[in-house]
């Protein structure tokens, strides 16, 4: 209700850089930010996704190189279970 009563003032303040958290029944629902902040957030998402994809590509390449060096090596889950069993034989996994 506060948003409806003071929409003009809130929009002016948001345009000046103020951020507003919009709640319903005391639960955060949305955030009102300036256009500039919104554009930065969009760019950040794109940059973050590009970094994530590059990291995944590096991991895949590292995995490929490791498989070339040891083609008969177990997968990661099996290797962890084998290592755990080696340190504590009483905790073997039975599937």
Largest sheet: 2 strands, antiparallel
Query: Averaged pLDDT, please?
Result: 84
Question: What percentage of amino acids are in beta strands?
Answer: 5-15%
Structural class: mainly alpha
N to C succession of SSEs: HHEEHH
Radius of gyration: 26 Å
Report the span from N to C terminus.
Answer: 56 Å
**What strand order characterises the main sheet?**
1-2
Number of strands: 2
Oligomer: single chain
Q: What percent of residues adopt helix (DSSP H or I)? A: 55-70%
Give the CA-based shape.
elongated
Explain briefly what this protein structure is.
This protein has 95 residues and is mostly helical.
Write the layout of secondary structure elements.
Blueprint: H1 2-5, H2 7-15, E1 20-24, E2 27-32, H3 35-69, H4 76-87
Antiparallel strand pairs: 1-2
Question: What does this protein structure show overall?
Answer:
By secondary structure, the chain is mainly alpha-helical. The chain contains 4 helices and 2 strands. Strands 1-2 form a two-stranded antiparallel ribbon. The chain is elongated and about 70 Å long. The model has no long low-confidence stretch (mean pLDDT 84).
